[in-house]
Amino acid sequence: QGFPMKQGVLTNNRVRLLFKKGMSCFRERRKGCRKRKSVRGCIVGPDLSVMNLVIIKKGEADVEGLTDVMQPRRLGPKRANHIRKLFSLDKKYDVRKFV
Questions:
Q1: Tens-digit pLDDT profile for residues 28-74
Q2: Distance separating alpha carbons of residues 76 and 60, to the nearest angstrom
Q3: Nearest Cα to Cα of residue 84 among 93, 75, 76
Q4: Pseudo-torsion of CA 85, 89, 92, 98, nearest 10°?
Q5: Sequence-ordered list of residues with C-beta below 8 angstroms from that of 45, at least 6 positions apart, any chain
Q6: What CA–CA distance (Å, rounded) separates 25 from 62?
């Protein structure tokens, strides 16, 4: 349904919470503003259709098709200084040859 999961909300459905500055799932637009937003509880269940995850720590065994192969970078840098940094070049080299 597109609602963020909020840690500490111990339910598996939506609730409306009053958010203020410094809380997760909220970005303050004006100073001192609070806003009531809908968030989902942190309990995972079969009613979730999609769950986006980030791998933080690699374990002992590889996950087949996920951590056992290295994916090359799809896009390279565009700025000259970033290209120099990637290839460890000095200013005297022409970066157009490395693009």
A1: 999 999 999 999 999 998 888 888 888 788 888 888 887 788 888 88
A2: 31
A3: 93
A4: -90
A5: 12
A6: 32
64 φ/ψ angles, rounded to the nearest 5 degrees: -60, 125
- Cβ neighbour number for residue 88 with a 10 Å cutoff: 7
Instruction: Note whether 8 and 24 are within 8 A (CB).
Output: no
| 68 vs 66: CA distance, rounded Å | 6
pTM: 0.55
Q: Is the dihedral of CA 60, 63, 69, 70 positive or negative?
A: negative
CB atoms within 10 A of CB 86: 13
Q: Token pair for residue 53?
A: 């995850």
What 16-24 contacts at long range (C-beta under 8 Å, 24+ apart), as own/partner pairs, is none
Asked if 42 and 31 touch (Cβ cutoff 8 Å), the reply is no
Strands of the chain, DSSP E: 14-19, 35-40
